Automatic annotation (TrEMBL):
Protein name: AraC family transcriptional regulator
Residues of the HTH araC/xylS-type domain: 205-303
Record organism: Agromyces mediolanus (Corynebacterium mediolanum)
Superkingdom field: Bacteria
Xref: InterPro entries: Class_I_gatase-like, DJ-1/PfpI, Homeodomain-like_sf, HTH_AraC, HTH_AraC-typ_CS, INH-QAR
Organism taxonomic ancestry: Bacteria, Bacillati, Actinomycetota, Actinomycetes, Micrococcales
Database matches in SMART domains: HTH_ARAC
Coiled-coil region list: none
């Protein structure tokens, strides 16, 4: 984690806790700054970092937590060059909140989609017009460069990376440890709407849970709307506002997510998995796996299956 002057405590703490060095997580967490020693943070806290920028020469993933007043002055040139060099040798760079400004200063976000805290999206657009700023998402995965919105969305981003590295099962274990929502459905470039829940949000959350418990059964828009006690038209409109997906898109992705975990955790065949999650046939499961994840069920199992 690259801690810059004015770093926000929660932005620093989230990746430190998600990727904590422990037996169940194959990561080592190190904290660095522009130089070793004391870094003045935001909100009255400071950080004593053990490493300078030399840590970026061997890190596999570099997190850039958000920091105060990112629009007032660019990060130091040595920081920008170290980030560019890390990316060039193959490290992935992930920014939380206003850490996106440091990432944008490298030019690595030019022509790419990115996000930051909603309060700073206009400033990011103005300062870096080549960046395709999306103010309406929790995080954006562009492969080797990732950005997230406000601090809490850093949890979504971190769990997404754990899932990308180690699969759904390990990510869900990490989420349970954090007492956090395990995941939001999506493909490799996941864009999750950040719109705040309106008054029907809790009702729809209950309906989503109801649907998750019945994925193996036939589910229609009418079934979901009846459970939420609203008309199908109202349910569909409000569901898109709340999740970014149509109801049936969400059901499909939920089924694929459950299939992922079954492929990781069980010896069930593809046809059995397809039937259990409500996708009917192995051919149907393969089709949706390819469309959503860019791989096959067997390829996914080979990559992510873990011994118990």
């Amino acid at each position: 984690m690259l801690v810059l002057e004015g770093a926000k405590p929660l932005d620093v703490g989230i990746p430190a806790q998600v990727f904590t060095t422990r037996a169940s997580m194959p990561y080592e967490v190190h904290v660095c700054g522009a130089a070793p020693g004391l870094v003045t943070g935001g909100d009255g806290l400071s950080y004593h970092v053990a490493h300078g920028l030399e840590a970026l020469e061997w890190a596999d993933t570099v997190f850039i937590p958000g920091y105060r007043h990112p629009d007032r002055e660019p990060p130091p040139a040595v920081v920008v060059e170290a980030l560019r060099a890390a990316h060039e040798r193959g490290a992935r760079l992930a920014a939380i909140s206003t850490g996106a400004f440091a990432l944008a200063a490298t030019g690595l976000l030019d022509g790419r989609r990115a996000t930051t805290h909603w309060h700073y999206t206009q400033a990011l657009r103005a300062g870096h017009p080549l960046v395709r700023v999306d103010a309406n998402v929790l995080f954006v995965d562009e492969g080797s460069v990732l950005t997230s919105a406000g601090a809490a969305s850093g949890i979504d981003l971190c769990l997404h990376l754990v899932r990308r590295d180690l699969g759904v099962g390990v990510a869900n274990h990490a989420a349970r440890r954090l007492v956090a929502a395990p995941y939001r459905s999506g493909g490799q470039a996941q864009y999750v709407p950040r719109s705040l829940p309106e008054e029907l949000g809790p009702v729809f959350a209950a309906t989503r849970q109801w649907a998750l418990e019945r994925l193996g059964e036939p589910l229609t828009l009418g079934d979901l709307a009846r459970n939420a006690n609203v008309s199908p038209r109202t349910f569909s409109r409000r569901f898109v506002e709340d999740t970014g997906y149509t109801p049936m898109q969400w059901v499909l992705r939920a089924r694929v997510d459950v299939a992922r975990e079954l492929l990781e955790r069980t010896e069930l065949g593809v046809e059995q998995v397809a039937a259990q999650v409500g996708l009917g046939t192995g051919a149907n499961l393969r089709l949706h796996f390819q469309r959503i994840l860019g791989t096959s069920p067997s390829g996914y199992r080979e990559t992510f299956a873990r011994g118990e």
